[in-house]
User: Fold N-acetyltransferase domain-containing protein from Panicum hallii.
Amino acid sequence: MAVVAPEDDGRAPVAVREFDAHSERDRAAVERLERACEVGPSGGKLCLFTDLLGDPLCRVRHSPAYLMLVAEAAGGPLGGAEVVGVVRGCIKTVACGRGSNLFSKVAYLLGLRVSPGHRRRGIGRSLVERMEEWFRQMGAEYAYVATDRDNEPSVRLFTARCGYAKFRTPSVLVHPVFRHDLAPSRSRRIAVVELAPRDAERLYRERLGDVEFFPRDIDAVLSNALSLGTFLAVPDAAARQWRGVDAFLAAPPESWAVVSVWNCKDAFLLEVRGAPRLWRAAAHATRAADRALSPWLRVPSVPNLFEPFGMHFLYGLGSAGPAAPRMARALCRHAHNLARAAGACVVATEVGACDPLRAGVPHWPRLGAEDLWCIKRLADGYGDGALGDWTKAPPGASIFVDPREF
Assistant:
């Protein structure tokens, strides 16, 4: 058990220990803590609100290896210990990019929270350092973390105090789900084909297996109960002559795109915080117009995002060819319709800063966020040889965002 030293003002020390998933006390304490913390950007942006199933491990338990730590301070309710901090971590093996088959065992930090009344006491740093000890014990070569680019305290904690380097700057793109379906392709020259998990795995390994952060256990991701399917956009003529994924890989069309859908709504809920009253009123007005006029005018309406709601996440977005952005747009519109049928209120994805598919992803900038991924080399000697030091590698065009960690 790690202990945070007491402050000069005489406040009690804080102990870091493993979260007990079987303890109702621990579960309730973590829920109270996370409700007390602002867990996302404000001002009308999406924020993680709570987990739907009452499972604090919901965002890591689908990973191959995971751990959750809590920090406790004395002097809580009824004189007992009070949970004042929490962090989660998971480990997997991913591709390092650079257009070659190089993989590294990496760890991911997420869900770091510290109670507002216990900040600036080194608790966040102690949680991170204790988690890094476990990462090293498990043989992880690198650790990385994603934070909002504008969250200065978080960025400062990781880069100035914990030794992480700024690494990648992907964007979270979010689109609301309307009350009406969208035509997958306005030109009717693009068709969407659903792939079986094994066919999807083969396509991903052969065509996207060298994309940065591509998970070696992609088969486990695709076969997870939360993965709702993989969809391939191809020219309509190619769809009419579809002979399976083997034929596609042997002679793909000039342009194509692929994406998989992850059901976040059965794991956690979100809400929009800090939205101005004017925006709330405008959103209500568009919903009223949609109810009155749909399906004739099909007004693009904002669903009720001001109460907890569910989301679908698009992952594995990849493509080839000059018409790839149009193909990606068709896939996103198809995913929108799946989300509407399932009762999700938004569809989101995350793309690299230089990803050419970004232009084809429909999104509302007001709902999205600009992320900053920071990375740290955990031990000398790791990552030598063909890889070198990954923390110094220039970014590629694309990045694979694992839905188990979103």
